[in-house]
From TrEMBL:
Domain of life: Bacteria
Species annotation: Psychromonas ingrahamii (strain DSM 17664 / CCUG 51855 / 37)
Taxonomic lineage of the native organism: Bacteria, Pseudomonadati, Pseudomonadota, Gammaproteobacteria, Alteromonadales
Name of this protein: cyclic-guanylate-specific phosphodiesterase
Entire protein: shown range: 418 to 718 of 727
Occurrences of domain EAL (ranges): 31-287
Length: 301
């Protein structure tokens, strides 16, 4: 019987192993397939951008927009950036794709500034991956794109994550200081989800700190979660950083964040990421420039 049990365990182990490798193989071939399709996506013009407003918590005025990459392969459904960006990073394709994002986002904002739809103080935030930061031509690419599109360095904000910094701290900290010296603003994205958040607050030349959505989700829950959030806002303000809360979905969350003096918010409660045309509609609809949903009914004049 002992022999039998041993035999069973071995069989099972082997089966598990086979199952495991099959799944890994499936995953690997899926990302190879994605990679092959990504290689032609730029040329085939399958990418476009959505923009999500960032608004001042008190006035509801738009202070910036975050550019978010979208990919729709010919005749197929949208593929989430959570799925294709890691593949593009792994394959090094994020460098040319990211350059396209920068150029597209900068020229769009410049058009909005020129047409008077947005005030010149409104910035464009663009996500940058560590592969782009490591690339030797980043600074010259940035200079060239600003020149081409006419955007001022101070109107561009680059979002980086702690995880990206951690991958190559010495190099990344250096390059971020050069970007800062150009007058471009830097934003720390997904704050609180990395390993040594406080250390990076000390080391990096930051303008903006974006509190990760998971902290905002917890509002209305435990006292401890709220205390942490309150302290992050307080700390950022003391460090002269602009605080953006990500993923605000409810009035309750907005109320909490205004009560604790969080400068600005971004999230579905204000607007989902939208195409350029739909951003224009949103701005035209709110002529007074206040993008906060109405709490009380408006008295007609
Ligand atoms: P992220 O930079 O942290 O962007 C915020 C994400 O949260 C976006 O997801 C946005 O649609 C989503 N979001 C905003 N408000 C809410 C909300 O109220 N509720 C919920 N549930 N979600 C909200 P998205 O567009 O799918 O992008 C995911 C991630 O992909 C981004 O996270 C960023 O890390 C990456 N990404 C997107 N575009 C680019 C790009 O051009 N370059 C690079 N390197 N990464 C990008
Ligand atoms: Mg971001
Ligand atoms: Mg984020
Ligand atoms: Mg993220």
């Amino acid at each position: 019987r002992a022999d039998m049990a041993m035999y069973r365990a071995k069989e099972q182990g082997r089966n598990n192993f086979q199952f495991y490798t099959a799944e890994l193989q499936q995953q690997a071939s899926k990302s190879i397939e994605l990679e092959n399709r990504l290689r032609h996506a730029l040329q085939r013009k399958e990418f476009f951008l959505h923009y999500q407003p960032q608004v001042d918590t008190n006035s509801g005025q738009i202070i910036g927009l975050e550019a978010l990459l979208r990919w729709q392969p010919d005749g197929q459904a949208l593929i989430s950036p959570e799925e294709f960006i890691p593949v593009a990073e792994e394959a090094g394709l994020i460098v040319p794709i990211g350059e396209w994002v920068l150029r597209e986002a900068c020229s769009q904002l410049h058009r909005w500034h020129r047409s008077g739809l947005l005030s010149p103080t409104v910035k464009m935030a663009v996500n940058l991956s560590v592969r782009q930061l490591e690339h030797t031509s980043l600074l010259s690419t940035l200079t060239q794109i600003l020149q081409e599109t006419g955007l001022k360095p101070s109107q561009l904000e680059l979002e980086i994550t702690e995880t990206a910094v951690m991958k190559d701290p010495d190099l990344v900290v250096n390059i971020l200081h050069s970007i800062h010296a150009m007058g471009i603003q830097l934003s720390l994205d997904d704050f609180g989800t990395g390993y040594s958040s406080l250390r990076y607050l000390k080391l990096l030349p930051l303008h903006v700190l974006k509190i990760d959505r998971s902290f905002i989700n917890d509002i209305g829950g435990k006292q401890r979660d709220q205390a942490i959030l309150e302290s992050i806002i307080y700390l950022s303000r003391n460090l002269d950083l602009t605080v953006v809360a990500e993923g605000v979905e409810t009035q309750e969350q907005l109320d909490f964040l205004s009560r604790f003096n969080c400068h600005s918010i971004q999230g579905y409660y204000i607007s989902k990421p939208k195409s350029a045309a739909n951003i224009e509609k949103l701005l035209h609809k709110n002529k007074d420039g206040n993008l906060l949903p109405m709490k009380t009914s408006v008295i007609p004049d």
